[in-house]
Automatic annotation (TrEMBL):
PANTHER family: HTH-TYPE TRANSCRIPTIONAL REGULATOR TRMBL2
Stretches the record annotates as Disordered: 325-346
Name assigned to this protein: LuxR family transcriptional regulator
InterPro entries with a match to the protein in the record: TrmB-like
Source species of the chain: Nocardioides currus
Highest taxon of source: Bacteria
């Protein structure tokens, strides 16, 4: 017999009280009217009998209690087995639903809504598809950290194709991207076709906007899982474009040949490092914000120690505080008025 919540409720109340009475009185006479037909204890007694907690001693004419530890496994073990089977069955159902969800995400219907989630290998083909459909403008923001350098050749092919169709393209990187050989090759390829590329000292998230109608942003996934969100909702796309435009206005043209510009960028990275130190951020956080490796970030801090003629970070913090350094003041080399923007004359 299977036992469920109803039987357990009787067992925990009336049946337990009856069992304790049987233990205290060394059993119960067979003819006790309380356990006969329509007796007040018939239901709890029947449950104790079914479970095996009472047995009939025919010679004495009494119902005797049985040690619960002997009987327990008869009830609990089957329930545990049923629980394990239910858990396994639920896992199979979840797996089946996941398969259907993946099929839905790959379907055209899922990608036509205001929001669509993309995972793993589905991301790159989708980006290639929407960029191939671009007819007017392509805006991209690529933080240096987390960029897959192995995908740059495909990105060059995809975006050069869009530029040759007459699509206008603007791309933002962090300043640290200027040190990457592969990124420099990418920038050379797209700017030769008319793209504009700038860099910024601040950290930002990855963003792609196509014709101001579709935006692709990072999604939330588990460890090691690639997730992207395609956004078609007009108000949200407009908001993301506005964020891009504000960042674009503060950014610097991507070039390593303009000496005043290079000095200005170095000053901006210095200021950002100071702000990270003053803010008490750990080195990995500061390195991510600047888009550099922890080793490069440690080198920036070492340069600051030399500049302020100190030996430790504590001394560095004290000296910066004493001099009123905040990382938000603009050194002469970083004066934006001395460095022309793209399309401006010096």
């Amino acid at each position: 017999m299977e036992y469920g919540p109803d039987e357990r409720s009787v067992f925990e109340t009336a049946a337990s009280e009856l069992y304790e009475e049987l233990v205290a009185q060394a059993g119960m006479p067979v003819g006790d009217p309380r356990i006969e037909h329509d007796g007040e204890l018939l239901e709890p007694f029947s449950l104790l009998k079914q479970i095996g907690l009472v047995v009939l001693d025919k010679s004495a004419g009494r119902w005797l209690p049985v040690d619960p530890s002997i009987v327990q496994s008869r009830v609990v073990t089957p329930l545990g087995q049923q629980g394990a089977e239910l858990i396994a069955e639920s896992a199979h159902w979840a797996k089946a639903f996941n398969g259907l969800s993946n099929a839905w995400r790959r379907s055209p219907e899922a990608l036509r809504g205001p929001f669509a989630e993309l995972r793993g290998e589905a991301i790159a083909p989708y980006i290639t598809s929407v960029v191939a459909d671009a007819s007017e403008e392509l805006l991209t923001a690529q933080p240096q950290t987390g960029r897959n350098i192995g995908q740059l050749p495909k990105a060059i092919e995809r975006e050069v194709g869009a530029l040759r169709r007459g699509v206008q393209m603007r791309t933002l990187y962090q300043h640290s991207a200027r040190r990457q050989v592969a990124t420099n090759k990418y920038v050379a390829a797209v700017t030769a076709e008319g793209a504009q590329v700038r860099t910024l000292d601040e950290f930002f998230n990855r963003l792609i906007v196509v014709d101001r109608r579709i935006a692709i942003v990072p999604g939330q996934g588990g460890p090691g899982e690639s997730v992207a969100l395609a956004v078609r909702e007009p108000s949200l796309v407009s908001y993301l474009v506005d964020i891009f435009e504000r960042s674009w206005e503060r950014a610097r043209p991507f070039t390593n040949r303009d000496t005043p510009l290079v000095r200005a960028i170095e000053a901006e990275q210095r200021a950002m490092t100071i702000r990270m130190l003053i803010g008490g951020h750990a080195d990995p956080v500061g390195a991510k914000r600047l888009g550099v490796s922890p080793r490069t970030y440690a080198g920036y801090i070492s340069e600051l120690k030399k500049e302020f003629e100190v030996e430790s970070r504590f001394q560095l913090g004290y000296e910066m505080g004493r001099r009123g350094v905040t990382g938000r003041d603009v050194p002469p080399a970083a004066d934006r008025g001395n460095v022309p923007r793209e399309g401006e004359s010096a």
